[in-house]
Amino acid sequence: MVTLTDFVTFNEFSAHCILLFVLVAVLLAVSAFVSGSETALFSLTPVDIKRVRESDTGQDRAILALLSDQEYLLATILIANNLVNICIVMLSNNIINELVVFNSTVFEFVVKTVIVTFLLLLFGEIIPKLYTTYNSLPFARNGAPLLLVLRKLLYPFSFVVVKITSRVSGSAPGGKHNLSMDEISNAIEMTSTPTQEEKQMLTGIVSLVNTEVGQIMKPRVDMTALDVTDSYREVKRLIIESGFSRIPVYEETLDNIKGVLYVKDMLPFIGREDSFDWTRYLRPAYFVPDNKKINDMLEEFQSRKVHLAIVVDEYGSTMGLVSMEDIIEEIVGEISDESDNDESFYTRLDENTYLFDGKTHLVDFAKVTGLDESKLHELSGEAETVAGLMLEIKRDFLKKGESLSVCDAALTVASLEGRRIDKVKVVVNRHE
Asked: How large is the angle between the packed helices 136-153 and 127-134, nearest 10 degrees?
């Protein structure tokens, strides 16, 4: 019968073994400290960093000093951890050799490998990293001063490591990989975020570089504008009815924009007579092409300190206008204030019947009716409104009363303005 004594023979404890045990325990504590510091410092959230910056303690200054050069910090941690782990392996091997005499080379290799690996992983890596994941800031504050001293002691070694890795990473082919917008968008979709609103905002930020001004502008037919020949009474009436703070002003046609009227400029003259020459206070209009990216548009709004731009086509004809609010809404979603009516674009006639404005965006249309938004966009092609969807499907102008079947709904032209679809009656077929 095979027994344990066939593989090993145990010796008695000596004072030397006890000393080695103490040294291994101390080195395991150092390994745990270094591993925990790595997790703690690199897990600090932006909120934690803000707290550290606002504080003036020695611990927080040490954290900022370490994070100011993360390459040297990481090199210090790796060097210290490897040196300590090598010492632990060597001392553990000596302890085992003094306590145990192996009669089997294979058994000796297995025991030494399993015991040392278990000690290092459990006490030097797993436990400290689990703890610091949930207590990153307190641990970082307590450990930063010691780690700062360690960085100074190991600086010569860290310097060599950083220089070599920088040279290697700089010369390696394909070392840098530029992510495409599609890859970033896919990453956001796969990432678990706290709220749907946060995911929507991240997606909106990414889409800034791909979205053109023409896609978010208010079209020409929906623009609110003043004619230079309008009386001051007409100006005040339009200001009150529209609620806008900036209104384009044209001469004869919208293709000839003369400037923009800022409502705040009229406040000192609110009591003037109808003959008051309000056109003297026009500000220059800012014109942009319809294919301009909205991230560039946002930068120009900020640099020029304007909030409104007239969108023109390649021939200089006015296509519409875009505002700062339009761009912000692409990131954070619809912005409403007390003067906005959330349901102004449709009227619910009964449980399954609605009356929509033809210019209603398909996203809002799908949200109200419950229809599949992806299917609507497949059918609409480049169109983004309910009227555009109907024109895309029909491939021709529609007459009043003409109906189309779209997804699980019947869309009927309720009214026209010239050839433009003004109102659309929608009857949704609800599946029980």
From this structure: 120
Yes or no: domain 213-332 corresponds to CATH 1.10.20.140:
no
Domain 213-332 identical in fold to domain 346-428: no
Q: What is the pLDDT of residue 110?
A: 76
pLDDT of residue 88: 87
Q: Tell whether the model's pLDDT for residue 38 goes beyond 80.
A: yes
The confidence score (pLDDT) of residue 298 equals: 85
Q: Is 17 left (phi over 0), alpha (psi -120 to 50) or beta?
A: alpha
Residues 217 and 292 sit within 8 Å (Cβ to Cβ): no
Task: Report how far residue 196's alpha carbon sits from residue 332's, in angstroms, rounded to the nearest whole number.
Answer: 11
Domain range list for the chain:
4-170, 181-210, 213-332, 346-428
Provide the CA 275 distance to its chain's centre, in angstroms. 52
Question: Are 33 and 128 in contact, with CB atoms under 8 Å apart?
Answer: yes
Domain 346-428: which CATH number of 3.30.70.920, 3.40.50.720, 3.30.1330.40, 3.30.465.10: 3.30.465.10
Q: Is 2 helix (H, G, I), strand (E, B) or coil?
A: coil
For the ranges 276-285, 305-314, 338-347, the lowest mean pLDDT is seen at 338-347
Lowest mean pLDDT among 92-106, 222-236, 261-275: 92-106
pLDDT at 157: 87
Taking residues 242-263, report their average pLDDT. Answer: 91
Residue that wins the pLDDT comparison between 182 and 134: 134
Tokens representing 295 are 């991230």
Of the two residues 111 and 240, the one the predictor is more confident about is 240
Whole-number Å distance between alpha carbons of 276 and 283: 17
**Residue 420 to residue 37: CA distance in whole angstroms:** 66
As a whole number of angstroms, the distance between CA 117 and CA 120 comes to: 5
CA distances from residue 231 to 224, 236, 238, 248, 285 in whole angstroms, order as listed: 16, 9, 11, 15, 21
Decide: 362 and 389 in contact? Cβ < 8 Å: yes
Q: Classify residue 331 by burial, with Cβ atoms within 10 Å: 0-12, 13-18, 19+.
A: middle
